[in-house]
Design goal:
16% of the residues lie in helices and 45% in strands. It is an alpha+beta fold. The protein has a single domain (2-144), classed as Hotdog Thioesterase (Thiol Ester Dehydrase, Chain A, Roll). Strands 1-2-3-5-6-7-4 form a seven-stranded antiparallel β-sheet. It is globular and about 45 Å long.
Length: 148
Amino acid sequence: MDVNLGADEIEQIIPHRYPMLLIDRIVEIEDGARGVGIKNVTANEWFFEGHFPGNRVMPGVLIVEALAQVAAVTLLRDVDQAGKIPMFGGIEKMRFRRPVTPGDQLRLEFTLERMRGPVGRGAVEASVDGQVVADGSISFALVENPTA
């Protein structure tokens, strides 16, 4: 289902804040099982200051984090999961296929593969202009938020 969640709505669902909120918009969510987000990569990103001077490349680990944030919004938007926070369990078979640089618009996709109680796994894919830049799977646990 098409949705249009901006930063304000995303911050109501997940606990991430600047500078670690790495998604700008959620554009699709299907019943907590699939989600699509957007990250507009600009030359002013904080991580470009040191990665790498003269050759700006978005760190792969931050692409994975952005994918995980899309997964978190997809899962936590469900009323049954309200008040929980996502914790990484693992990153499996992640491949980085080309650099992400200023001016790119990342399309970040998550598809839930398995959920057993609070623990799950899903496929993730990041693309720019229809070309896959990273893909793999992530595992996670949804735990009670100790500050809620």
